[in-house]
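Data card: per-record layout.
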Amino acid sequence: MRLPGALTMMMFAALLAWASVGVAEAPPPLKLADPLKEATEGAQTTLEDQTDVAVTVYNNDVALVRDRRKVKLFPGEVTLRFADVAQQIRPETVSLGSLSDPGRLHILEQNYEFDLMSPGKLMEKYVGKAVRLVNFSTEIGFEQVEAELLSVNESPIYRVGNEIFLGHPGNVVLPEIPSNLVAKPSLIWLLDNNGTDHEIEVAYLTGGIQWRADYVVNLAKDEGHMDLTGWVTLVNQSGATYTDAQLKVVAGEVNVVREEMDMAFAGGRMKAMAAPMPEPMREESFAEYHLYTLPRRTTIKENQSKQVNLLQAVNIAVKKIYEFRGDASFYSQRMPPLEKQNASVFLTFANEEKNSLGIPLPAGVMRVYQEDSEGMRQFAGEDSIRHTPKDEEVRLRLGEAFDVVGERTQTDYQRIAENVNEAAFEIKVRNHKEGDIEIDIVEPMFGDWKILDSSHEFVKKDAQTAIFRVKAPKDGETTVSYRIRVKY
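The structure for this 488-residue chain is written out next.
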């Protein structure tokens, strides 16, 4: 049994002082209780017995772990300590079954022990009990005294004889390790075993493992095409390492009850990237969600962030959209002119098979890069996407256009009746880019509205939105005017 680092250092210092000075008798050997032996008269299993492990990670900070191990058990009623489980395990979700001898192994009782050893916990267990204080100095050599630990609040307090010591300059030696402290979180079962040796599979849910999708978009210079690479970014803070594991991730919102007390696919239609890429994850429909499986095994270390390739596609048709957006409040009051407002920039593309995609895209962040005049990739903006099924449009907001500005002027405002307003607007858009562009003037509205007249045609997108799509020539100005009546 391995001792915690703090106790090892205490024993080493005490024995070194005794051997080098020799002015006092060696301290009696430290009695080490074996919590595994005391807690169970049966068997124990660790990662050394593991034959396989699989991890399925969901979007809502929960993962399913399936841990297979070979164990030797006596027939009859026997206890089994299952060590090396995740510290954030949800014990109520644990299931155990024998793969080699089904039906001959049954759980009678289950306990989860998570009171882990630490210097502070060890000291707390010895409040009111006898300990040994060991001190070493060049003058007196090795010295030890018996003491009673009175308290560990803020700092230790000891009684030595009839005196009270606030702290101690040397080391504290404890007579034994309390049996109710464990080195690692463990599940302990009382089993009814009608066989002998078993290969068991233990499955449980744990928190502390999250995944998200991250996408890299390389936008062509002509801004009409792009390449897309998707990654699964996995963060493991569950308190366990999963070595050579089968990894799956589930995209979709799986409902999970939260108690108040709770502390890609590469089909034949995909073209290969110019540079060699790892095999993407395999995608399949699962219940109401989508399941992505890594085609190889991987080790997920504790407190590690890991990325694995999710998908890749090239030559995706994309469209850049400039948008100058108004506000529904503009029609209910008089307002001053709004000058030098920059247009917003969007990228849109169809998630369709004929557009080199047509696959479910998990929620995540898409980061867009584009080459400059020297061929160096530069960051051009990012946006998050929701879970996007195939045959749906993806729309990314990249930021504001430096060279596309506009101004909005309310040229008239009248209150026709108590709940009826009439207003007129003039919107000027200037394009200082090196080429002609199209820009959408998007006008959100509420209430019952009607555009009485306008300088350009518009599209009624929905009950609350009108869109004017106009051309803005290079170094030119386009003016849109309209009059609207709104009934609230």
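Known properties of this structure: Residues 5-30+127-173 form one domain. The longest helix spans residues 5-21.

See the next section for split statistics.
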